[in-house]
Amino acid sequence: MEQPNLLYIFVSALLINNFTLYYFLGLCPFFGVSGRIATAFRLGLATIFVMVITAIAAWALDRWVLVHAPYLQLISFIVVIASTVQFVEMVIKKASPVLFKALGIFLPLITTNCAILYLALTASKKGYDLVTGLVFAVGAGAGFTLALVLMAGLREEAELSDIPSIVKGTAMNLIIAGLLSLAFMGFAGLFSSSA
Amino acid sequence: MSAEQDPSQAYAEFVKGIWKENPVFVQVLGMCPMLAVTNTAMNAVAMGGATFFVLVGSSFLVSLLRRYIPAQVRISTYIIIIASFVTIADYVLQAALPAIHKELGAFISLIVVNCLILGRQEAFASKNTVKVAVADAVGMAIGFLFAMLCLGSLREILGNGSLFGFDLFGPRFEPWVVMILPPGGFIMLGVLLLFFNYVKVRRQKRAAEIARVAALEQEAA
User: Fold this and answer.
1) Least CB-CB distance to B186: which of A26, A114, A181?
2) Is residue B214 in a domain?
């Protein structure tokens, strides 16, 4: 199977079809952990790491296991993701207890971050090889991190401004996200549709 | 907790999911599918239906097996139960409604990671009897379906001038295209949440006012 241009895949996952702002994936951490820029950035890094491992595992599963049992796809992918997250959790707990505390419940919840499962499913559906899959994973993860950090910056800013009490909280965050998503639509013209 | 077993409890669990603890408008759970597939009312209903099946099925099984699931591996067990139901729903939709299945794409599979479903298993089904757990799941699923339908209809009406594919306003209507695009989803849900907040704040104010007047009257008497 012919593999598409790597740069195109990367930029597309990073900006144009940004997982969070275009496909609405990973919204729970997007609204949950976007209070502080530093925390948001680190959660983004953890997510990129899980995505890369998942991409490798999904590729291997796809190649050697799922050809024999396609109906196990969903179950095997989710088990891989859950184990990777468990591993990352152990590493972070050991390496940086402060970060572990700051991320709190959202660390185990990376398991239920739909962006990661979507990544594995899409890569397997489009038949990406290992390198393409890795580029796709890094692009998507970086896109998620970018959206998360931008959102955190906007929210830190908004905290200082005078806002009516009924708008505060999720309603305002959703509207901020809508504007951010509107801005990201501007990237749609970056490649012509033939690319 | 599971000792209580009067029919009114099941009913109460059923009702709370629809309005008072609506999973989307009040608890803000399960937002990814909520926003991604609500660009038309029909997609919203299909997605709501699939979620309904998975949520009720897993709640039933989890509450049935709750005594046998070891606490250390409970989350993995729930996920595998949920994933099995999602696989069933995925294959059934593919066979019965291929067009809609294609449009929803990967989002059917992504029901596995809908935090609403896992949340209900962890917070409710694992601690309650089958009957109450199923009542709770049905209520939550109907609340979810209701929210999806609200958002899906509003976005389709504004963004496309139609509802369930039927043209509403005739050819002179200028569609507000951004509403069926991703930004419209965020903004529309934001506006709906605003409305819910407004209703809640007003109700609280009124309750406070009534309490104040009652206190004054008592004082006067």
Assistant:
1) A181
2) no
**Count of domains forming chain B:** 1
Contact (CB<8Å) B194/A167: yes
Q: Shortest CB distance from B193 goes to which of A75, A114, A174?
A: A174
Range of the domain at B123: 7-204
A176 min Cα distance to partner chain B (Å) = 8
ipTM above 0.90, yes or no: no
> Which residues, other chains included, contact B127 with Cβ-Cβ below 8 Å and sequence gap of 6+?
B1, B2, B66
Q: Each residue of A43-67: pLDDT tens digit? A: 888 889 889 988 998 888 888 888 8
Q: Is A22 on the interface with B (CB under 8 A)?
A: yes
Specify the pTM. Answer: 0.82
Residue B166 bridge partners (DSSP): B163
The pLDDT score that the predictor gives to residue B6 is 60
**CA-to-CA distance for A182 and B31, rounded, in angstroms?**
18
pLDDT of residue B4: 47
User: Would you give the DSSP letter of residue B129?
Assistant: -
Instruction: Using DSSP, state whether B180 is helix, strand or coil.
Output: helix
Residues in chain A: 195
